[in-house]
Amino acid sequence: QVQLEQSGAEVKKPGASVKVSCKTSGYTFTKYNIHWVRQAPGQGLEWMGTINPNGGSTNYAQKFQGRVTMTRDTSTSTVYMDLSSLRSEDTAVYYCARIRGVIITEYYFDYWGQGTLVTVSS
Amino acid sequence: SYELTQPPSVSVSPGQTASITCSGDKLGDKYACWYQQKSGQSPVLVIYQDTKRPSGIPERFSASNSGNTATLTIIGTQAMDEADYYCQAWDTSTAGVFGTGTKVTVL
After folding, report:
1. A7 near A17, Cβ under 8 Å?
2. CA dist., res. A2 & res. B42, Å (int)
3. What is the pLDDT of residues A98-122, one digit of tens each?
4. Is the Cα dihedral B65, B105, A94, A6 positive or negative?
């Protein structure tokens, strides 16, 4: 069965970086893009960007350009999301999610990770 | 940037119909999907490509999308349907866009 297993909670100081992992299993890793979505406490969902595990190409939301880096390790079927220059507003649960659909307008998330809480506090 | 607007909350009595709207410029020209998120859990897909239900989603969930509005309808709402619901669409310039979210309360 398809599974997306994320790394554990993190506490970081302002200005630091955090790297969250998303280990996938149960399907061919290189066939489906992985996206990252975050949710601040009590707030809605916010799309951050995506990585194509087949080649590693990425597309980031404009808001995170320059601060986020998504990478993958095909040997372990794992995707990583690195967010730098953290500030208190980055405190959120970060989710990875698998995308389905042939073209972007048809996309939908069919599987989600369990979420990783990142707390930014001095 | 593209925006999707939902009512903050919807209240419904058990067994009745709940309707949640999602408004965006020419949303009907895009595919909309809907996610259910229960407290402390990851989102779950309940509708994709405007009207399709994934395997395992009850038939009481249905949806439509036309003009500037997509609508999620829950017919015969049950207590277990109490959750936050988010619409989502894809914009070729902005990429992934989520609605503001609607809290459904089953009274």
Report:
1. no
2. 15
3. 999 878 888 999 999 999 999 999 9
4. negative
